[in-house]
TrEMBL record:
GO terms for cellular component: cytoplasm; nucleus. PANTHER family: GLUTAREDOXIN 2, GLUTAREDOXIN-1-RELATED. InterPro entries: Glutaredoxin (IPR002109), Glutaredoxin_euk/vir (IPR011899), Glutaredoxin_subgr (IPR014025), Thioredoxin-like_sf (IPR036249). Coiled coil: none annotated. This is Thioredoxin-like protein. GO terms for molecular function: glutathione disulfide oxidoreductase activity; glutathione peroxidase activity; glutathione transferase activity. Residues 33-95 form the Glutaredoxin domain. Keywords: Redox-active center. It comes from Aspergillus coremiiformis. It catalyses: RX + glutathione = an S-substituted glutathione + a halide anion + H(+); 1-chloro-2,4-dinitrobenzene + glutathione = 2,4-dinitrophenyl-S-glutathione + chloride + H(+); 2 glutathione + H2O2 = glutathione disulfide + 2 H2O. The lineage of its organism: Eukaryota, Fungi, Dikarya, Ascomycota, Pezizomycotina.
Length: 118
């Protein structure tokens, strides 16, 4: 709990950052659809609900439950220029956040099919 409340005051070490960047990239590369999320975030829940409604196969990484979640979030910011969650990838392409995913509702089934996530 302390880490969740005060984790933003400390930055990951360069080694941790490098390991987190490799980990994040591996997760993205190995999965058709990835949602980097936080368990308490309503926007993350909305994104996962939409993917569930579409019956998509996806991996959700709850950053607040990961030991290196803060470092992964920093790494995602470096990779995408987006700090906030959810951070969503489909077929290794960064889609954006919840509002970006919601805006793609009409084309989402085709995106998911193309990614092999249906």
């Amino acid at each position: 709990m302390f880490r969740r409340l005060f984790g933003f005051f400390s930055s990951p070490t360069p080694a941790a950052m490098s390991a987190a960047k490799i980990k994040a990239q591996n997760i993205i590369n190995e999965n058709a659809v990835v949602v980097f999320s936080k368990s308490y975030c309503p926007y993350c829940t909305a994104s996962k609900n939409l993917l569930n409604k579409e019956k998509a196969k996806y991996v959700a990484i709850e950053l607040d439950n990961e030991k290196d979640g803060s470092a992964i979030q920093d790494a995602l910011e470096e990779l995408t220029n987006q700090r906030t969650v959810p951070s969503i990838f489909i077929k290794q392409k960064h889609i954006g956040g919840n509002s970006d995913l919601q805006a793609k509702k009409a084309e989402l089934p085709a995106l998911l099919m193309d990614a092999g996530a249906l």
